[in-house]
């Protein structure tokens, strides 16, 4: 699979005008990171798709078609944005809890724990009946069979994954459910008038497009960030009780405003309904059905705001027995055979993840692409729309690209190797060094109008 073919797959799956593909140039070939998977192809194609969708929305707005270019090394720097983040020339706060990682089980299997949120860590320690110490956790897990512990933690609403081979994953009902889905879905869910973009003096493709970003960690926030870097007014909404990871708030908060709304009470729900009534895109990355339980499912939003583009991001897909299972990028890699394939190629003993959070970032760019493709449909045919993506669907697509047997031997890329891909901005966190947008649009270069802000720094209203 080449980046060009991967981009064509995204573009044609969405039913977009194929002539636009003539306006894209892609440079670079895998491997540019140590992996047997074609992560550079995934990065280049998904970022180019988002950039081209922004360019096409600009064409609808102005009548001008512009060229889009993506260099693979810059795309991969973007896929590692949290790794290259620096605050005041020093590293940001730690991304991971010390207990997170791989553990050997009684039956000589491996399981991965994901304990970056305090309540997830506390729940795992309670199930295991041990202290908050990596050695104690390892000893406790040695008393469990892997599949039993995996299911026990999932039943408790906690985050873990039994390390499976690709064949073991393919045999599961969840993998079969995902195999029946396309890479992403863009579905019309209601009638609404045509809403063409305004043509009066806009300088960015998504000027006047309002986005509510109800997401945390990486995939959903990357989608909101990608929309912000093309001019959308992105308002990030967090609950006051929900945990976050500080460096990801900073990295993925660039270009956004940030407000707090509590959906546990009537006043908070009324506030969000009011915001949704003025939004163009409602982006959410909670488990399927979680927001619908509060009255904010796609059909409800289409009634509140006819013409809404509702974007759903989840871990394991919206159908199948694992649809409600909590998950993150690394867990999907572990469950679906990616970590085994990387391990076996490199000759490691422990499972081995990809050299970046590729499923997160690619899914984020696919979500942003889907949002813009749906906005373009709204501009030409009207309607309300639902875009659905998942980490597992993206992972399945990456696995279909084929392997580079010696790809794991490629040298790693340190921050000094990508200094030209970084830029500094002053913020309330200090001097933030972050990765620049990887896509180049020759009329409307991508960029961030706002520095990152702390959670709740702004009022819950449209600017």
From TrEMBL:
Pfam entry (one): CoA_transf_3
Protein name as it appears in the record: CoA-transferase III family protein
Coiled-coil residue spans: none
Organism superkingdom: Bacteria
GO molecular function, one term: catalytic activity
SUPFAM superfamilies xrefs: CoA-transferase family III (CaiB/BaiF)
